[in-house]
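Attaching the record inline, Q. Sequence:
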Amino acid sequence: MLIGVSACNDDNSTLSTVRVDDIEIEGLTDQSVVSYVGNKIEISPVISTGYAEDNLNYAWYLYENGMGELEDGYRTNRISSEKDLSYEVNLPSGSYTLVFEVTSISNNYVKTATVNLSVSTSFSQGFYILKETPDGRTEVDLYGNDGLVPNLMERFSGSALQGKPRNLSVVYSGEYIDPDANKTASANLVHVFTEDNVYRGFRSEDMKEVFNNSNLFYGGDIPANEIPYLLFRTPNYTAYFSNTGIRTAKTASYGQAANSGMMGYPVDEVGTSKHVQLLFYGMNLVYWSNEEHRLRTIDYRFNSPALVGYNDETAYPDDLECISSGVNIMSDGEVVTAYFLCEQPSTGNRYLLLLDTFSPETISETIKLDAKWHIASSDIVTGNRLSATYLYSIYENELYAYSWTTKDERKFNLPGIPAGETITYITNQYFNAYSDTSTNCDYFIVATQTGNQYKLYFYNEENMNGGQPISAGRVITGEGTVKAVRFLSPISLAGSDHMDNPIYPLTD
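Structure, as predicted:
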């Protein structure tokens, strides 16, 4: 029987004659990288094998963890066919896997090894800088942990946006439809507005455009003659303010899934402005109406819009224009005062309208500013939120601080700023979250201009004393003319967070 079986065995295969050597891969380590700023992964594997070098093919693949089964397995996304990997990372933050594959050409023997890749971005935290280009267009820079990243519009939208800058808004836990996954999602968003009524909304994670003039409204494009002013969050809604009124998108709460973030029909069709403040622990909004030249109020559910009341002592002219607004927390940490600085174009007179937390439906004080105060004529103005009841102004390139409680003004030095630089913008950028204080900050920021170069001077708590700059802080340099600065934290804010005292400035 053994002889018969042996005689019938006629094996003409070649597999047994082909040598199968092992392939060992070493020299791979897990990687952590910041994306979108030109950083590269550089990996040089060490290969030990009996195969000749010209008998080996190499490939690198990349996939995002948690994406489920891929159509072609790990081979769906090949990023290199070289042994040594040099790959510039332009990916959303998250956890990824790199697969290195070595294949013998002669027998298709394959050996793989993997690398864990952790990706973060520079766009989720830092100071977004709205600026005007020399040809009158809108650009945005970002100053963060990796330094200055310039011209984000050119980088992610192809070019600077048409029109001069109008406003810059940040919205925490903003909702949108993810264009990659085609499903609802939530992220911190950055919104850019130009004087040509061009609007773009980006998720801060990777500056992916998620909103524009064509998809913000359910009813179609934003009309060409509409003037978008800003977007912001309240406890239960994302709100959009324009010259045609207020639109809202209800936000998810109590564990519900995110919504689309698209705006429905106007809840109030009286024209608004970019000057809006939250009072009474986020339960009431007070804002200036460019259409009515009046302060208006509406609750956080966007019901019951009405004019803010006043009496004989707090009355103000009916032809004012608002030029600056903000909030201030008094020393007791409870009373929030909102201010609206307005000017009467026909006379040049300026009025300071004040409201407080517990009576946002009524003006608490109207101050006709004496012409001797520099705040009564300066166009460069901002307020102090945390450390003093000051309104800052720039007059003849010098800093002045007016207090509405003491009704006086004082001059402050600006340490570190050379005399030859022209001051063009000031702002108090703060972040004062209560549940997560890891990124809380308070900066007085001054922008100067020399030719097409700007400088930003940052004065933090260590450089300030009682609202007064006392020492020089950080300085950064960029190109263009600064029009607005907004700080963005990477943390998420729930709707209930907006029921605390104002956490960050909505506008200047």
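The two ends are 98 Å apart (CA to CA). Confidence is low (pLDDT under 50) at residues 1-17.

More tomorrow.
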